[in-house]
Structure formats: structure tokens, C-alpha cells
Design brief:
Helix content is 39%, strand content 21%. The chain is an alpha+beta fold and 133 residues long. A 6-stranded antiparallel sheet has the order 1-6-5-4-2-3, sandwiched between helices. A hairpin with an 8-residue loop joins strand 2 and strand 3. Helix 1 runs antiparallel to helix 2 and helix 2 runs antiparallel to helix 3.
């Protein structure tokens, strides 16, 4: 777990009145899973609306942003414990987070990709920050 990256994500993309609670949940190993689930079930209530660059179900928008990115890796927050808190190569990150049924957040320097938990049909996807659409 990289607390500095997670703090950056929270302070940059999460509404002020929700930051402390989410930071507490993510930094507490016993509450982390619950924090990730609550985030992905209430994404629209937690993220700053001004930061949304894309909201929908089209994976190609996510891939376009990754293709334009200069970074080689991104940091993952996920309800999948095998990838949560890890750094992943940008070429393979989508295969790690898309369609696995769970909630995941891929944090790059200038943007964030979120896949919410899949309930029915394709999961909702978000791109936050300085995105290329």
C-alpha cells in the first residue's frame, strides 16, 4: 500500500467532505475492503464532478487514455487483494481491472481510471483528470 499515492488520489479527486473518511478506511487494513466497496457503490457522491472527463461503458476510451500516457506504470486500488496496492504496467492494467466483476481504481500521474463493481451488464467506467477522450 502506497499511502502517498492514495492521499494524492483522495485530495485531488474526492470531494472535501468525504476525504477524511475514505482516507481512514483505505489506510486501515480491516476497513480497506469496505472503503473500496463504498467508494465504487457511491462513486458519483464521492468524486469531484469537475474532474469527470468520461463516464460510460466504452473500454476504448480508457485504452485511448492509456495509449497517450507517458507513464509506464500505474498504481491500483482494488477489491481484488491480488492486485490491490500494486504497481502495474500500463500495457496490461486494463486486463487486470476490466470485467473482473470487482471495483478497481488505476491511478496515473494526470488521470485516474475507475471501474465500478459490476452488478448487471457492463460495469460503469470513469476517467478523471487530464484525460484524452
Amino acid at each position: 500500500m502506497d499511502i502517498q499515492i492514495e492521499q494524492y488520489f483522495i485530495h485531488t479527486y474526492i470531494t472535501k467532505n468525504r476525504q477524511d473518511r475514505l482516507l481512514y478506511k483505505l489506510s486501515n487494513p480491516k476497513k480497506r475492503g469496505d472503503g473500496i466497496q463504498r467508494f465504487c457503490h457511491g462513486t458519483m457522491q464521492l468524486i469531484k464532478p469537475s474532474m469527470i472527463r468520461y463516464q460510460g461503458k466504452d473500454v476504448s476510451v480508457l485504452q485511448n487514455n492509456i495509449n497517450m500516457c507517458q507513464e509506464n506504470q500505474c498504481y491500483l486500488i482494488s477489491d481484488d487483494s491480488t492486485i490491490d496496492g500494486t504497481w502495474q504496467d500500463r500495457e496490461t492494467v486494463l486486463s487486470q481491472i476490466i470485467g473482473n466483476g470487482g471495483a478497481s481504481i488505476a491511478i496515473f500521474k494526470d488521470f485516474v481510471i475507475i471501474e465500478t463493481e459490476q452488478v448487471q451488464g457492463a460495469a460503469e467506467k470513469f476517467v478523471l483528470g487530464s484525460a484524452v477522450l
